Amino acid sequence: METPFVWTDLSTFDVGKATAFYRQVLGWEFEQGAGGYYNAHLANAPCAGVYEMPAFFQEIRMPSFWMTYISVDDVKAVTARAQKLGGKLEIEENNTKGRIALIRDPAGAGFTCYQGNTLAAGHRPEIAGHWCYSELFVSDLALVQDFYAGLFGWTFQPQADDRYLIHNADGENIGAAQVASGEAKGRKEFWAVYFSVPNVDAALAKVSEAGGRIEGTYPHALGTQGLAYDDQGAAFFLLQSDSFPAVNSFTASSPPTTGNFKWKALAGLTGVYLVVLLEQHWAWGIIFLLWILPDIKRGETYFFQAINHRNNPILFWAIAVTWIALSVLMFFYSS
Question: pTM of the prediction?
């Protein structure tokens, strides 16, 4: 099953403070892209974006917020349908990543529809610190149930704890909605983002150390959740769950330091120098294979930009086959 939730990003006031906060709390590394948009990576996988809040939102005193992106085939068609169903269009534009539209449902919860093939965080709960889940928080499901049914064909299946599993038109579970009082969720309706952690308490301690605010921990159908706010007021959840595969890589109790030893990169760079100096051109074939084989296993490579197998299968395999062919040529010409 492929989830329609493909990306999440943070609209914030001070990008420098935000990147420092999430680097400390979740172990993210950042790469600046076009237009001042920062892409967060973790365990060699893209996981989120961070950018400065648009002037329009700053003028209306919008607080810093996390946004959930939903993949669609035709943004304009979805936007027109959303408005007929009682939704509100706030932003529609083309940018370097594709075509987007920020829509608010009839209760006021905002989400972004995305048409393109660049954004692909998906859900990676097996990587600690990665975006793993999005859930709709609403005070009254009746306000939005027909909206999402008409817009995406979703249905809501009631559970025992005021939660509703969201099913797509094929009957597959793709997410959930939580009916919550204003006391529990605040005055606004919203799509909440969750990040996977091996230990909620340890992760929340990092939030506090980084200058954020802890709201508390609560039971969740998947495990234990902790609600926190970063140092600029953006809300997010940390989720500890036995339902996820064993969480590995970064751990919230032992965040990576900026000076950790990158022995693989150093060994690879040393190998390149040796190949050039000793003129052992056959070794390029080994280097090319060591470069591309992990990317094939992971389902994502990088050639001037990130190429994900799920979203760009033809281009992904064209790049992979090219590197493999170059490897074979290096062996052939050196023999």
Answer: 0.70
